[in-house]
């Protein structure tokens, strides 16, 4: 059977819906929430309210654009976690309501597995097994992907995520939220070797970003003591140097994981995979080490329902359905 599935994503601050038919994503409707900008980060209470206000329109638009009738849907998929509980609840409840009304099965999707499976939306698709470096606002993981349904986290951050390090550093420089993309933009005109930051030594495949966050705070404090306009005067060089440091940290671990596993099929996923320096240095590293790299389209890096739909497609084929008593889980882990 070639299923038609509606997928809903509401784990953080994007309300998104997508329809997938026979494994082909037909659309990817995303309503971003602007309400958080003035607070410098996502406010969970406001995020859940915005999902409530947007979800009906977003789902309707996805169904309309797909040109299908509700009765054609073979399943309703949703993000179960990880994410903000109040945000997840909106998507889970909406999906349950639809599945009940349409008398069709439910499919729960792990958001972090979906970030990895975003690679199967379009060609070129990775071959198994491959390694995926997932770098997002809430996670930094090295995932060994054996097939669409079986993956294992072989390294992850012990504290903050890389996206959080980008956003917090941006906030320290008074950039609007989310600051990651702005650091990327300013860095393109800066010198990556203008400033250096201390190296964090974590053994094995795990990461740590809390040290660089603190080091950057003290770096700015000390520089501003000598020159109050330091950030304004050296903005591009600061961004380039910090970005160079953060990207080096993840590429080092990726290199180690590839050497340890002997795997040369390498993918990146998650919001920070949109970073231009990570993308270009990964390509350069791939040329040097003979890797075959897979870099997703920008629209499939940050949160989107197309990746949830893709993950749901494989679960449907394996007949892995959820029951009506399923509940969201804020820190849902990837299960092999
Ligand atoms: N070009 C870029 N350079 C650096 N960081 C970026 C860029 N584009 C987006 N980001 C960062 O990506 C993050 C958002 O990614 P994503 O939407 O995948 O995270 P999330 O959904 O909040 O977290 P998670 O997926 O772990 O639950 C933010 O931290 C944002 O700053
Ligand atoms: Mg995400």
Q: What is this entry, summarized?
A:
This protein has nine helices and eleven strands. With 336 residues, it is α/β, with parallel strands linked by helices. The longest helix has 32 residues, at 230-261.
Task: Assign the CATH architecture of the largest domain.
Answer: 2-Layer Sandwich
> What structural class do helix, strand and pairing data support?
alpha/beta
CATH superfamily of the largest domain: ATPase, nucleotide binding domain
Shape: globular
Number of domains: 2
Contiguous helical run count: 9
The termini sit apart by: 25 Å
* Low-confidence parts: none
Q: Classify the fold: give the CATH topology of the largest domain.
A: Nucleotidyltransferase, domain 5
* Helix fraction by DSSP (H/I, runs of at least 4): 40-55%
Radius of gyration: 20 Å
Count the E strands.
11
Q: What's the CATH first level of the largest domain?
A: Alpha Beta
Small molecules bound: adenosine-5'-triphosphate, magnesium ion
Order of helices and strands: EEEEHEHEHEEEHHHHEHEH
Sheet of most strands = 6 strands, mixed
Q: Mean pLDDT, nearest integer? A: 97
Looking at how many chains there are and whether they match, the oligomeric state comes to: single chain
SS strand fraction: 15-25%
């Amino acid at each position: 059977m070639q299923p038609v599935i509606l997928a809903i994503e509401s784990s953080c601050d994007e309300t998104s819906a997508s329809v997938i038919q026979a494994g082909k994503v037909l659309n990817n409707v995303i309503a971003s929430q602007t309400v958080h900008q003035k607070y410098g980060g996502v406010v969970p209470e406001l995020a859940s309210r915005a999902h409530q206000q947007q979800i009906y329109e977003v789902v309707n638009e996805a169904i309309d654009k797909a040109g299908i009738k509700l009765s054609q849907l073979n399943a309703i998929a949703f993000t179960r976690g990880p994410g903000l509980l109040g945000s997840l609840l909106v998507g889970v409840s909406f999906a349950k309501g639809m599945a009940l009304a349409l008398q069709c099965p439910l499919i729960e999707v792990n958001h972090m597995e979906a970030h990895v499976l975003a690679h199967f939306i379009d060609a070129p698709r990775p071959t198994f097994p491959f390694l995926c470096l997932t770098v997002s606002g809430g996670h930094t993981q090295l995932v060994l992907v054996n097939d669409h349904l079986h993956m294992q986290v072989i390294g992850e951050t012990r504290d903050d995520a890389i996206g959080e390090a980008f956003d917090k550093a941006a906030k320290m420089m008074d950039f609007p939220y989310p600051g990651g993309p702005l650091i990327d933009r300013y860095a393109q005109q800066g010198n990556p070797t203008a400033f250096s930051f201390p190296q964090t030594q974590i053994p094995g495949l795990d990461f740590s970003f809390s040290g660089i966050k603190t080091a950057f705070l003290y770096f700015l404090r000390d520089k501003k003591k000598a020159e109050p306009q330091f950030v304004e005067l050296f903005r591009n060089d600061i961004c380039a140097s910090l970005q160079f440091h953060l990207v080096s940290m993840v590429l080092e671990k990726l290199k180690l994981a590839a050497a340890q596993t002997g795997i040369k099929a390498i993918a990146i996923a998650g919001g920070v995979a949109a970073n231009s320096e990570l993308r270009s240095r990964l390509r350069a590293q791939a040329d040097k080490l003979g890797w075959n790299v897979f870099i997703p389209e920008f629209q499939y890096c940050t949160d989107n329902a197309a990746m949830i739909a893709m993950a749901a497609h494989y679960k449907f084929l394996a007949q892995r359905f959820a029951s009506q008593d399923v509940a969201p889980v804020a820190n849902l882990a990837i299960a092999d």
